[in-house]
Design brief:
Blueprint lengths: L2 H20 L4 H10 L4 H11 L1 H10 L8 H24 L2 H39 L10 H20 L4 H12 L4 H26 L4 H21 L5 H23 L1
Membrane topology: Multi-pass membrane protein
Subcellular location: Cell membrane
Protein name: Probable membrane transporter protein
């Protein structure tokens, strides 16, 4: 590995760790970097999934204050994410590499779209929550409605499948569905998101480590960078302008789509 490749991969790991902790979609930074340096998309995905595990754990620990009182809820959500991650890894390892290389530009494009529309979704969720609170006399419940519990768990499972197959923007997806179906402050939802994303990455990364093509030097560089990034994201993430983070993600994601499409031409 060329030394400056190693430096850029480590820096991408730092930035991805920060982004994953604050909003999600850090993979849209690291994945294009790895592909640009010549790593096959499947190897880039599996190495990325393992390398970013420490950062997601660091980010989840950094949000421990927001997670107080949510242990029971996490006991319900974590199995759904874990099972989904297993399903996603099975898909990645079962389908031919050509299938992954064909669908990954679509997945990256979907992730970019989700990042772009996230502010509108968040605004809609906030208005919905305020309306619900007004109907309840100004008090919004802590638990999702019973009729929405099955739907919530199903969607968390499906996001886990997506995350196990291709990790980009799973955090954005989780924030969207929890925001629509749960009545919690955004920072508490972000804490739950970090835990569930960490679970998906740990489960998928563990499986990949034994049966998938991995670049361990890449894993080491991403892991070191993401640990620092996850800590920084939890420490100062709420002070960073969301538009700046979102703009970087969108630009990098669009560049990734163009590059991946050109590889197939």
């Amino acid at each position: 590995m060329i030394w400056w490749h190693a430096v850029l991969i480590a820096l991408a790991g730092v930035w991805a760790g920060m982004i994953n902790t604050v909003v999600g979609s850090g993979t849209l930074v690291t994945f294009p970097v790895l592909v640009a340096f010549g790593y096959p998309p499947v190897t880039a995905t599996t190495s990325n999934a393992i390398g970013l595990v420490p950062g997601t754990i660091t980010g989840a620990i950094g949000y421990r204050k927001e997670l107080r009182g949510q242990f029971g809820r996490l006991l319900t959500f974590v199995p759904a994410s874990a099972l989904g991650a297993v399903g996603g890894t099975v898909l990645l390892l079962s389908l031919p590499p050509d299938a992954f290389e064909t669908v990954v530009p679509v997945l990256v494009g979907l992730a970019v779209v989700l990042v772009i529309i996230q502010p509108r979704v968040s605004t809609w969720v906030l208005r919905r929550r305020e309306t619900r609170a007004e109907r309840k006399g100004g008090q919004d419940g802590d638990e999702p409605a019973k009729q929405g519990t099955v739907l919530l768990l199903t969607l968390i499972f499906l996001v886990g499948v997506y995350g196990g197959y291709f990790t980009a923007a799973q955090g954005v997806m989780l924030m969207a569905i929890m925001g629509m179906l749960m009545s919690e402050p955004i920072q508490r939802l972000n804490g739950i998101k970090n835990v569930l994303a960490a679970v998906v990455n740990v489960v998928a990364g563990t499986i990949y480590a034994f049966v998938a093509p991995i670049s361990w030097p890449v894993v080491a560089l991403l892991a070191g960078g993401s640990i620092l990034g996850g800590w920084l994201g939890a420490l100062v993430g709420r002070r960073l302008p969301p538009t700046v983070l979102r703009g970087v993600i969108v630009v990098v994601g669009i560049a990734a789509v163009i590059q991946l499409v050109l590889r197939q031409v």
